[in-house]
């Protein structure tokens, strides 16, 4: 089994980090720090709670003077355990650096620390408390020479960042985000462009018409921007938004016929797979986006549809293409299955073209 991300914060890695700190700041109490952080609650803590526990431990054993504490962290960050461990440093800023008198120190520290591990979570309380001021800073970051800082400008203001504190004001009105996305829409870094796309996708969940207008305005002018638009509209495409489907040429569903839709077995055992096959035929040359939806039974007995993409192709006049697919019903960390009557549906250019029921049972 793969190691959980939270387990990278363990006795070995924390001791290593503490020893690096002590080499710079001799009064740092390594053993006391470890005992404080890895107390009786440690094993039950999830990732973000562990990060916060470590930050609070640093706050206890580093100097009380915030500027002095930052100067120590500045000297040790490059030598601490690599990878995700760097998230501790911006979290320390989030915990101890939100006083008005420390604003400039904190903003500069977040800019320095984000290349080691993104400060996307740490900036969010600053946005919530000082939205106009912080968004001006985020725009400044969007013009930074470092791709990690530019990405922070977009990722930090995503309205619905996974694991992050929701920015409810931007869920209601995402307008303050748009100048940053506009600035970054042709960014040379794929790392930055992916963040811009994810930000657009977040916005699309509450303001689909706005994202559709942006997509129509941006698409077809730049290769980098085209990728952003397509990835940023993925939820709208799955939802069958006709305007967005048309932007990418998937507007014609009537010219595509679905034949020989076969689903087996009719009863699927939990942990096993469903197999389905079908053929599509084009009456004329047509761009085709193929998906399938499964109406899953939830714990409360109600059903919820999940969409899965099959392919995007162009079919010539009278061309046929045959597909066979498998879908697993093994439980995963992201999805638990429940017995009952499920439905699988084929979707062509956003339009359902056939469906069949099947039963999921437990061993």
TrEMBL record:
InterPro entries per the UniProt record, alphabetical: ARM-type_fold, DNA_alkylation, HEAT_type_2
The cross-references to Pfam families, in alphabetical order and at most eight, read: DNA_alkylation (PF08713)
The organism's superkingdom is given as Bacteria
**The organism's lineage?**
Bacteria, Bacillati, Bacillota, Clostridia, Lachnospirales
Species name for this entry? Faecalicatena faecalis
- PROSITE patterns from the entry? HEAT_REPEAT (PS50077)
Q: What's the protein here called? A: DNA alkylation repair protein
